[in-house]
Amino acid sequence: MVPPVQVSPLIKTARWSALLIGLLYGKQRYDYLKPIAAEERRIEEEEKKLREEQERIYKQLSEANSDTILK
């Protein structure tokens, strides 16, 4: 086997710096997007409740109409 090559301290520092900057950027971006996603989930939940209520009403009306047509 070939012995490992000695990596330059400048390259090591650059790699670690890029890693830390990436972590900081990711945390900042997550904190920015988290409230937006929470608001979207809240709105979607409200819309889902409305949609389910409308489907329930439609089902009740269609059942009421189907009972009187052919009987």
From TrEMBL:
GO terms for biological process: proton motive force-driven ATP synthesis. GO terms for cellular component: mitochondrial inner membrane; proton-transporting ATP synthase complex. Belongs to the ATPase e subunit family. Keywords: Acetylation, ATP synthesis, CF(0), Coiled coil, Hydrogen ion transport, Ion transport, Membrane, Mitochondrion, Mitochondrion inner membrane, Transport. Component of the ATP synthase complex composed at least of ATP5F1A/subunit alpha, ATP5F1B/subunit beta, ATP5MC1/subunit c (homooctomer), MT-ATP6/subunit a, MT-ATP8/subunit 8, ATP5ME/subunit e, ATP5MF/subunit f, ATP5MG/subunit g, ATP5MK/subunit k, ATP5MJ/subunit j, ATP5F1C/subunit gamma, ATP5F1D/subunit delta, ATP5F1E/subunit epsilon, ATP5PF/subunit F6, ATP5PB/subunit b, ATP5PD/subunit d, ATP5PO/subunit OSCP. It is found in: Mitochondrion inner membrane. Transmembrane segments: none annotated. PANTHER family: ATP SYNTHASE E CHAIN, MITOCHONDRIAL (PTHR12427), ATP SYNTHASE SUBUNIT E, MITOCHONDRIAL (PTHR12427:SF1). Its main location: mitochondrion. Subunit e, of the mitochondrial membrane ATP synthase complex (F(1)F(0) ATP synthase or Complex V) that produces ATP from ADP in the presence of a proton gradient across the membrane which is generated by electron transport complexes of the respiratory chain. ATP synthase complex consist of a soluble F(1) head domain - the catalytic core - and a membrane F(1) domain - the membrane proton channel. These two domains are linked by a central stalk rotating inside the F(1) region and a stationary peripheral stalk. Residues 36-67 form a coiled coil. It comes from Culter alburnus. This is ATP synthase F(0) complex subunit e, mitochondrial. It comes from the Eukaryota.
